[in-house]
């Protein structure tokens, strides 16, 4: 897979290292000579250019990229790059970094963004996930906000405790994708039984999350 990453700061370089370790082709774009250092990430290609200029993106052969990652520290740059990647170069998938949570509403398909990653929001969600039992925690959005990854920690008073997963009627457009129990993650089967303290991970559409929460928060009689 060929991945083009705009922004060779700490975030962009970290993503590049992970992708290179998984044997993907990576090109880093940055307009700062200081940010582009071949010795920092062996195996990565580099391009000194403005990620918002068509000439630079053409030089990067963006039309050959499978994924473009807009990882700069400027939300305007990330939005413009995502839009250009989609409309001018036909890139199949764009992943864009959100620096300011107030700008999250802009990061959708209108600006060519397939996946928006907000570090502040993700950190908040992880804090909530660590301390909240009995609440539905939104971890991440997918498919331009049409689906979300949600986490729920089962309370010992929950009606779900001792229920077979196959017997639970989850809302439409909602899938239980993983369970973490005693620090071990596994893919749930219909015969698995819910236990108190289980962390349940769902993919659910936004309009079904209220129904999902009502189901999960129901207490045993």
Secondary structure layout:
Layout: E1 2-6, H1 10-21, E2 25-30, E3 45-48, H2 54-59, E4 67-70, H3 75-87, E5 93-98, E6 115-118, H4 119-131, E7 136-142, E8 147-153, E9 174-181, E10 184-186, E11 199-204, H5 209-217
Parallel strand pairs: 1-2, 1-4, 2-3, 4-5, 5-6
Antiparallel strand pairs: 7-8, 8-11, 9-10, 9-11
Describe the structure.
By secondary structure, the chain is an alpha/beta fold. It has 5 helices and 11 strands, in the order βαββαβαββαβββββα. The chain has helices spanning 10-21, 54-59, 75-87, 119-131, 209-217; strands at 2-6, 25-30, 45-48, 67-70, 93-98, 115-118, 136-142, 147-153, 174-181, 184-186, 199-204. A 6-stranded parallel beta sheet has the order 3-2-1-4-5-6, with helices on both faces. It has a 5-stranded antiparallel beta sheet with strand order 7-8-11-9-10. β1 (2-6), α1 and β2 form a beta-alpha-beta unit. The model is unreliable at 129-133 (pLDDT under 50). This is Trk system potassium uptake protein TrkA.
Count of alpha/pi helices: 5
Give the overall shape, derived from the CA principal axes: elongated
Helical content stands at: 10-25%
- Biggest sheet overview: 6 strands, parallel
Give the termini separation. 52 Å
Would you tell me the overall average pLDDT?
86
For the largest sheet, list the strands in their spatial order.
3-2-1-4-5-6
